[in-house]
Amino acid sequence: KYNIWNGSAWGGATNYDAVRTSGTIQGLALATVGGTSNDFAMAWGDSSLDLSANYWDGTNNVWKTEPTAALSAGLDTLAAATSLTNWSFDLDFELSGELLVVWGNAAGTDILYRTRTAGAAGAWSGSNSTAAAFAEQSDDLELSADPNSDRMILVHTGSDSGNDMEAGIWDGSAFPASIDTAIPCAANVVCVIDAAVDTTGAGTSGNAAGWRTD
């Protein structure tokens, strides 16, 4: 359900009938376009470990369309749990208005992602893409957009092989194609920030990322 604040009062709760998921919603994330736009996007994961997303047209107060199929049918969880345990997905907007949704899948270590072109009339990319340089299965993931460019930083933690924390910069069209395990990391790589980060607990997050603007 969702409820709209119009600047002075709350409206009534409205049901959103998800098209690509059918389980109980166990996690969701919102991201705003920014600037003068009234638009935003939402992604959600359910008890079947399915993931979907949609775009809100703030001018007309309507949801647009979800992707043609669920983005994932196997979101990553801690200890192979059968229901969602952590925020293993996130979304944000480039300065251009393009939307990026990212997530970890239980079937492998790669980060998966899908894009949507800018604006209420935008369209989802036709299929998922893979950021193969990430080496950790993503239990706990955060995406943060640079307010001054189309770059984003993705930081995530995986518990499959030593609780490693990795970070990589989305350059507006792709994530890095290689990984560096030595600090300081080289430029334009997925960087292994910590090879012994504390264990992530169910319902918690052990990482965050942001941008300086100077």
Describe this structure in words.
By secondary structure, the protein is mainly β. 0% of the residues lie in helices and 33% in strands. It has no helices and 13 strands. The protein has strands spanning 25-32, 40-46, 51-57, 62-63, 89-93, 99-104, 111-116, 129-131, 140-145, 152-158, 164-170, 179-180, 190-194. The chain has a five-stranded mixed sheet with strand order 9-10-11-13-12, with no helix packed on it. A four-stranded antiparallel sheet has the order 1-2-3-4, with no helix packed on it. The chain has a four-stranded antiparallel sheet with strand order 5-6-7-8, with no helix packed on it. Strand 5 and strand 6 (99-104) form a beta hairpin. The chain is globular. It starts with 24 loop residues before the first strand and ends in a 20-residue tail after the last strand.
**Low-pLDDT ranges:** none
The secondary structure category is mainly beta
Counting copies of identical and different chains, the oligomeric state is single chain
Give the beta-strand count: 13
Helix proportion range: under 10%
Shape: globular
* Order of strands, widest sheet: 9-10-11-13-12
Biggest β-sheet description: 5 strands, mixed
* Secondary-structure element pattern, one letter each: EEEEEEEEEEEEE
Fill in the keyword field for this structure.
mainly beta, single chain, 214 residues, four-stranded antiparallel β-sheet, five-stranded mixed β-sheet, 13 strands
In short:
This protein is mainly β and 214 residues long. The chain starts with 24 loop residues before the first strand and ends in a 20-residue tail after the last strand. Helix content is 0%, strand content 33%.
